[in-house]
């Protein structure tokens, strides 16, 4: 039968390879990921500062695209079409 990738012997073999022959590639990869995360966090901080500076007003008094609002609008249209004498 085949050994699972989570078995102790497989995990130990992978960790030995990571420490030995693939250590250089593993360290480079970790460094790239750390640099990328640092850059992304820096970009997010500048975006937050820009958002705070602009403070645009958002209109909340318009048509809402929900099912209940759509139903209510249809009811109002039906009421308007009837004529009373």
From TrEMBL:
Protein name per Swiss-Prot or TrEMBL: DUF2423 domain-containing protein
Pfam families: YBL028C_N
Source domain of life: Eukaryota
Biased composition (Basic and acidic residues): 36-68
One term under GO cellular component: preribosome, large subunit precursor
Compositional bias ranges of the Basic residues kind: 1-17, 69-85
Record region (Disordered): 1-21, 36-85
Domain named DUF2423: residues: 1-44
PANTHER family found in the cross-reference section: UPF0642 PROTEIN YBL028C
Lineage, opening ranks: Eukaryota, Fungi, Dikarya, Ascomycota, Saccharomycotina
């Amino acid at each position: 039968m085949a050994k699972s990738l989570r078995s102790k012997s497989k995990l130990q073999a992978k960790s030995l390879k990571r420490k030995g022959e693939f250590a250089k590639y593993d360290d480079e990869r970790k460094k790239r990921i750390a640099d990328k995360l640092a850059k992304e966090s820096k970009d997010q901080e500048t975006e937050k500062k820009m958002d705070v500076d602009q403070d645009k007003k958002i209109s909340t008094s318009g048509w809402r695209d929900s099912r209940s609002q759509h139903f209510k609008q249809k009811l109002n249209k039906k009421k308007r079409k009837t004529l009373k004498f």
